[in-house]
Amino acid sequence: xxxxxAAFKSKSLKWQLLIRWSLMLMLLLIIMGISQFFITRSYxxxxxNQVLEARLHDxxxxxxxxxxxxxxxxxxxxxxxxxxxDRNTSVVIxxxxxxxxxxxxxxxxxxTPPNLTREEYxxxxxxxxxxxxxxxxxxxxHNRDMLKFKKISSGPxxxxxxxxSTTVExxxxxxxxxxxFYIVASIVIIxxxxxIGITVLxxxxxxxxxxxNTLDKITVGQLNLRLPIDNGQFEIDSLSDAFNGMFKRIExxxxxxxxIKDKMQRFISDASHEMRTPLTSIHGFxxxxxxxAAKNENQLNIALNSILIESERLTELVNELLMLIKLDQQIKxxxxxxxxxxxxxxxxxxxxxxxxxxxxxxxxxxxLLVKVNKNQIKQIIYNLVQNAIQHTDETNGVVSISVNSIDxxxxxxxxxxxxxxxxxxxxxDLFDIFDRFFRSEAHRSRKYGGxxxxxxxxxxxxxxxxxxxxxxxxxxxxxxxxxxxxxxx
Length: 489
Fold this sequence. Notes:
Number of strands: 12
Number of helices: 12
Mean pLDDT: 79
Distance between the termini: 72 Å
Largest sheet: 5 strands, antiparallel
Strand order of the largest sheet: 2-1-5-4-3
Order of helices and strands: HHHHEEHEEEHHHHEHEEHEEHEE
Strand content: 15-25%
């Protein structure tokens, strides 16, 4: 019911197309009717004119000469009237002064032929030519007649004028009947055209209605619905394809927003949990001191050292979170062309101290220049080596740092590889290790104080340098991280 009402609203496409179709049909019929009326009228009047002209041309020179030979002008005129007139034709003879000399009557003698005024006759006599023209006028019985004229001449002199007339009422009657018939036929055609137009529009606009029904079904929970693109109409198919593209982008954006929202909630939850642990520990030691442990020098030292360690852990966590925030905000940092070998050798002494009894092996290629931020590259090396050290044996652990180059279709790239012979990472965790606060079940020990942010920082720095990072690992054999950064030509 709602659709039926909507279909007849002024803003309905179906209603507007139907009105315009009807107006075009009416305009076409009117133009055709008017054209047909005037063409038919002109044809019939032309035929009538030819009949009158033939009667005038039937007068030969002998007839005119005989009329001139009579001494009485009225006798001459009567002779010509009797010669030309019949029951359907009236004749009037006018002298050169515009006076009527003789005129014919109808079959019953009660029909008066149409007469012009004396001035009009005189004007016709003065016109150039033989006066063989016609006009349509209304006679004394209020009917319309066709008048045809022919001058009576003798050499260069004009002696008078012959007026021959016949009624055109049969033509008018025929035209009126034709107009009535055409009006009725046009009304029937318009009604049939509207009915056909409604049917055609119904099937033509059906794909559009189907498109509207599908759009009504699409909600936030059903963004995966798509419109059909095989409707048989190019314009509707193009519109459906455009809508499908829009819905795909909306669905992708919605999913991305939902993913970011879920990730942010998890991030806040994990950050709160990680910060709560050192804060709880500090709070507990402060309570112990307030209860009297401060008077005991041994307990005081234990408490203060614990507070110091937990505060350092908290500071480290806050610093790592601040670094991640800066990386997320994509704050521009200064980048220069650096030799990667120089950066590794510069950070090597710190790595040796961090490794303890473990071995740090270097396999470096010289003169590999990359456009990077030196401090951030140091952060990458430090985090990956620290991660390797935490998961290798204290005495038999080996961490290898190698640098070389590789050619790809997009250009030459630096390959920075950091390998270890540690415990490895379970295969199911390889896709999650770069998530913030993620720690494998096998590596949740607090021995090294990790928060699961080191690899997230590494991934963010690599992305900021338009690079790529890959990881491969095998349990109880070790892990390998490969970083690719485009070389400077």
